[in-house]
Amino acid sequence: MKSKILYILLAVVAIAIGCKKTDFSNESNGEALGGFAITAPSNNAMIVLNSATPNNKLTFTWSAAKPGVSTAPTYKFVAALKTGSIDAPIIELASDANGTSTTLTLTHKQLDDALKAKSIADGIKTDLIWAVKATNGDVTITTSPALNIAITRMGDGVSNFLLYGPVSSSTPVVINPNSTTDFLNFKWQKSFAGVAANATKYVIKFVAKGGDFSSPLFTYTSANSGLDSALAIGYKNISDKLTAAGFTDQATPVALQWTVEATSGNFKKTADYVNDLVITREVKMFLVGGDTPAGWTAESALQMIPDASNPGTFYIYVKLTAGSGGFKFLNQQQWPGGSLNAADWGMKPGSPGDAVVDGESNIETYGASGVYRITFDQKNLKYYVQADHGRMGAVGGATAAGWDPPTIFPSQALGFVNTNKFLGLVSLTSGQEWKLIDGNAWGNGSISGSRDYGKGATAGSMLEANESNFAHTGTTGLKRIIWDGTDIKNLKYSVTDGSVFLVGNATAGGWDNSASNNALPAMTYEGNGKWTVTANLTVGEFKFIVTKGSWDFDYGGSAGKISNGGANLAITTAGNYTVKIDEYNQTYTVTKN
Fold it and tell me: Does domain 38-152 have CATH number 2.60.40?
């Protein structure tokens, strides 16, 4: 009998061990239900209901509560006053899809109506706690702990709105930091107030890119005392704001972001998007003075080239006539005291090479008349007037001098044509590379050192920084090389054949400039930019071309001066003529023999 009882006990224990308990956190005599948790919004969320956008949606989400066998749960959103208990909610709302969804979607108005039904006044912030209840009929469980949420009922409000311009871009907007007559125009979509009596007003906010708009660098109230959805901001004004915000180096681009904050009564809302805005304060610099081609007329002052490698530094290649009163630097083509807020710099008295903006002297101590490279370092208040850099020459494997700068002058030199322009006739070897340089040594990185130039990103463009060598792919022989900095923002170079022909109905070849027209009179190169030809000319007109088959580069002119694209030259009496041009001095003569 004893062994039989022991056998029965062992069987019971085995059955108990072999039955694994289902993993549910909540059970009853009926269906079980697994635990679940809230996913959004997070604890301590703050929601401000907007009377101007009553149909905007709010979403509450949570994970699913796992049913024990077959009965799927239904859910309710419950909220109570923070001072109360979640078991005594003031709001109970079934989730989406008649309570079967793990999401509750409410419009601002629906949530506002729910609070209003509990006698919470318009515009009042209410601190609540909230949770989600799940039930399958047998078991009811609640997410824990209850989360804090602050909801402000509808009162004032503003509708959503968009920024129009300036459009978001990483391309710098170039402004003149001294101009009070130029403006940057900001525009945005009008926002409508939820309470009509409280008109919407706007403030433009600026931050450094990635910054916090709650602590902007600077702000502007829009036009019409904040009521207009636009504002024109003067270049000087925005530059002064940047300086006050710590961006004192005007030569360095500033990456900003901007948005607009709309306010109606106590309600504030920013635009739907944030726009990028990069501002470059283009400090222009000009040369003026009796020793310069501009004279002392500020409106004719010569604009200097900005140094791409040294922001805040400017230079110019120019012919100076010593003894005519010297020169100064201007940041506008206007003398100080005018509407452009101009400033001028000259020599610090008794200290050549040092510049000052007040109490300055004209810069007159530099040497004899000639071509100079003048450099002004505005940031460090230094200037350089250098005859040994007032020139340009070809250097490289394509030239006879090779890559040895000390040997290129004068054999590989270009002639000075006019301010910021050189032209030279130099022999180049096909398949080799070369560059242009303004000194007899490679630059050492200093502002006063040599500058060398190479090819830019596009054909014909020229750079001093981040450049590549020029590649000569044409035929070996004499070539016309032009260094052209007359457009200070777009340095250019060109290489054409080292030849000149007469073309026109006054010549035997007529106006046919094709490569096969051997009747076009060819000029002979005499060196130093000078060409000559003797030919029979008839009554009519002619001009000079440098390459047969192309009108891209031709000389015309009048009164003894030639220019690219100039007027046709007239022959009024037929006969034998000697025609000469000087490309370096841009002159011509037509003499009847």
Answer: yes
